[in-house]
Design goal:
alpha+beta, sugar transport, 465 residues, extended, Elongation Factor Tu (Ef-tu), domain 3, MetI-like fold, 6-stranded antiparallel beta barrel, 3 domains, 7% strand, ABC-type maltose transporter activity
Length: 465
């Protein structure tokens, strides 16, 4: 006689080691993926039933799906409860890190721009009439072929999208085209009953263009990419050298315990870092004004001709380095003082007994012991200034203009501001696809420079120990 063994109870003990971590992440990813899929399907069905449904319903349905699926997941895997605390972190990582990266890479190979935005083309609207069976749309003012108007991939325009409007043109209605001939378009399904068609237009489609954006960037590299990249490297390297030298010298001077009033000096020198950058930079814009700025007024009293600080390409770059020095040296000074506090005073006392001068103590004790502390600070500072968009945008906005350069890549533009100008400030023709391609190039350049910096600093060798 055979007896059936009772079903084995599901364990509440999570799998151990790397396998357990990967399995938990896989289950959580599947849970979120299923929630998003269900939310998208429900939002799509709602949009078909209620055309004016708000877009945020996707988030609402996704959240509701997550609340329903989470208990079911717990019943199947009781131990997963210990990992549910990761859900918020994973959601934020996916929403604010993974998704933007995926979209940026995707857009880099498209023609996405202010013109090709996937929205109805308001400039191409044509007077339209609808047939009695609501399946045929005639454009009375159309010039040229239907294929050119809808930018169809085939002669019949099958599958293309048109947008219909009523007299007020308040709500767009998207319809699919079955075929087109002349100025007449046959729809795959009757137009909605609740719209009296008065106008029609096309969709500015987003389409894939392969490597066309990268070809455009490298095709005009001498007018944008190479000069902007060179200035970006010079700007980041010069800033970190000047700021670190100034911070190191001031930090060593102010760490001297025999200096009277050193706390007062520290507080005063710390103020540039405490004041918000927006305020500081705007102050320097006024100070560097060629006609009315106090800097040129003071130089005029000394008989020096007014300097075009922000109006000349070379002087504008010098101005950026000076202002960035003002903003950055307090951080380096504070880091130096903090690092000096970790050095044993007995070393200096022993050196002084041996007859070492103050300079010999600095070069033989202070600087070698500060190397380990300053190496990551210098590397991170270089990476930060390589993409330091704020100082460029606030002080010069990338200008002044320079002959032979692209309008989006002027004399003081760095790679990041060049991408920003391409995406948002290109005279209404925002080229988001080209800006995404620039962002990918920035990523690989930053990655390469970081690897070189880490290798030169011996970071990889330290990690192997």
């Amino acid at each position: 006689m055979t007896t059936l063994s009772p079903p084995r109870a599901r364990t509440t003990v999570p799998p151990q080691g790397t396998r357990g971590i990967l399995l938990a992440l896989l289950i959580l990813a599947a849970l979120m993926g299923a929630s998003v899929l269900i939310g998208w399907l429900l939002a799509t069905l709602t949009a078909q039933v209620v055309p004016g449904a708000p877009a945020y319903l996707l988030l609402v349905f996704t959240l509701l799906s997550l609340l329903v699926l989470a208990p079911l997941t717990h019943r199947a895997f009781p131990w997963i409860t210990n990992w549910f605390y990761l859900l918020p972190a994973l959601v934020f990582i996916l929403a604010f890190t993974v998704l933007p990266v995926v979209l940026t890479v995707n857009y880099a190979f498209t023609n996405y721009s202010g013109q090709n935005s996937g929205n109805p083309d308001s400039a191409a609207r044509q007077p339209a009439t609808l047939s009695a069976d609501r399946r045929t749309v005639t454009l009375s003012g159309l010039e040229g072929s239907a294929r050119d108007y809808l930018t169809c991939r085939n002669d019949t325009c099958a599958g293309a999208t048109m947008v219909l409007y009523d007299e007020d043109a308040s709500v767009p209605y998207r319809v699919k085209v079955a075929s087109a001939q002349g100025n007449t378009f046959t729809l795959t399904a009757p137009a909605p009953q609740n719209v009296e068609v008065a106008q029609a237009t096309r969709i500015n489609k987003i389409s894939y263009v392969g490597l066309a954006n990268f070809q455009e960037i490298f095709g005009k590299a001498s007018r944008a990419l190479w000069p902007v990249f060179l200035w970006t490297v010079i700007f980041a390297f010069s800033t970190i050298v000047l700021n670190s030298l100034a911070g190191l010298i001031l930090g060593i001077l102010l760490y001297n315990k025999r200096l009277k009033g050193r706390n007062v000096y520290r507080t005063l020198l710390f103020l540039p870092w405490a004041i918000p950058t927006v305020i500081s930079v705007q102050m320097w814009v006024a100070l560097f004004n060629q006609q009315f700025g106090i800097v040129n007024k003071t130089l005029g009293l000394l008989g020096i001709v007014a300097i075009p600080w922000l109006n000349d390409p070379l002087w504008a770059k010098i101005s950026i380095l000076l202002v960035n020095l003002w903003l950055g040296f307090p951080y380096m000074m504070t880091a130096t003082i903090s690092a000096l506090s970790t050095i044993n005073d007995d070393l200096y006392e022993a050196a002084e007994i041996d007859g070492a001068s103050r300079w010999q103590q600095i070069t033989g004790i202070t600087l070698p012991l500060l190397r380990n502390s300053f190496t990551p600070i210098l590397l991170s500072g270089f990476a930060f200034n390589f993409n330091n968009f704020g100082i460029i945008y606030l002080l010069t906005a990338g200008g002044p203009a320079q002959e032979g350069r692209e309008s989006t890549a002027q004399s003081t533009d760095i790679l990041l501001s060049w991408g920003y100008n391409t995406a948002f400030v290109s005279a209404g023709g925002q080229n988001f696809a080209l800006a995404s391609a620039i962002a990918l190039i920035i990523f690989f350049l930053t990655l390469a420079i970081s690897i070189v910096n880490f290798k030169a600093a011996g970071v990889f060798e330290e990690a192997r120990k």
